[in-house]
């Protein structure tokens, strides 16, 4: 249903992003090829993702947020991609396994960010003071709490779009 674009068929405004994401062998990820049908969505997601990568949450905590959203939204391509990113970050295999199965994480600090992410999702941001306090108890900051919302927004857009276009 949703076309997997090439550099030649994609709308002009999506082509630069596609070229940047093209592998040295010339392959462009299927999700990128399909999301290219909306340059605004593709470029918006890439900008938001780059911004999330610059926030003060450490890379592993960011991946916990991303994986929590991906699993909740059942985005298989996202789960696969971010499981690989966890490996590259040197995360223990049991962390990726727990995230993929929505199980508690063995690391209390990472579990706190996973639980907070789920609370924000479940309450549409209306978490109670105890949830925020629980996050802060694990060394996170109010800024980090806001960054979780940023990650949720970024990766909700990505997971929903990837599911819509049936990205593989």
Key words describing this protein structure:
168 residues, mainly alpha
Describe this protein's structure.
The chain is mostly helical. Helix content is 68%, strand content 0%. It has nine helices and no strands. The protein has helices spanning 12-21, 30-35, 39-53, 59-72, 76-88, 93-100, 108-123, 129-137, 142-164. Helix 7 (108-123) packs across helix 9. The longest helix has 23 residues, at 142-164. The radius of gyration is 17 Å and the shape is elongated. The two termini are 13 Å apart.
Please describe the biggest sheet, giving its number of strands, its sense, and whether it closes into a barrel.
none
Q: Say what oligomer this is.
A: single chain
Distance between the termini: 13 Å
Uncertain runs are none
Tally of helical segments: 9
- The helical percent reads 55-70%
As a percent range, the share of strand residues is under 5%
Give, in order, the helices and strands: HHHHHHHHH
Briefly note the structural class of the backbone. Answer: mainly alpha
Return the average pLDDT rounded to an integer.
Answer: 97
Number of strands: 0
- Radius of gyration over alpha carbons? 17 Å
Shape: elongated
In brief:
With 168 residues, this protein is mainly α.
Which helices and strands appear, and what pairs or packs with what?
Blueprint: H1 12-21, H2 30-35, H3 39-53, H4 59-72, H5 76-88, H6 93-100, H7 108-123, H8 129-137, H9 142-164
Helix pairs in contact: 1-3, 3-9, 4-5, 4-7, 4-9, 5-6, 7-8, 7-9
């Amino acid at each position: 249903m949703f076309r997997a674009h090439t550099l030649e068929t994609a709308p002009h405004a999506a082509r630069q992003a596609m070229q940047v994401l093209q592998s040295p062998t010339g392959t462009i990820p299927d999700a990128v090829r399909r999301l290219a049908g909306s340059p605004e969505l593709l470029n918006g997601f890439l900008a938001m993702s780059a911004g999330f990568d610059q926030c003060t949450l450490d890379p592993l905590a960011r991946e916990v947020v991303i994986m929590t959203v991906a699993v909740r939204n059942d985005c298989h391509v996202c789960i696969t991609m971010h499981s690989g990113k966890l490996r590259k970050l040197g995360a223990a295999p049991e962390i990726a396994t727990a995230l993929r199965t929505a199980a508690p994480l063995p690391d209390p600090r990472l579990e706190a960010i996973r639980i907070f992410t789920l609370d924000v999702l479940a309450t549409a941001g209306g978490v109670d003071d105890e949830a925020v306090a629980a996050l802060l108890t694990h060394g996170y900051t109010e800024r980090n709490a806001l960054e979780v919302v940023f990650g949720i927004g970024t990766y909700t857009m990505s997971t929903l779009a990837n599911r819509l276009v049936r990205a593989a």
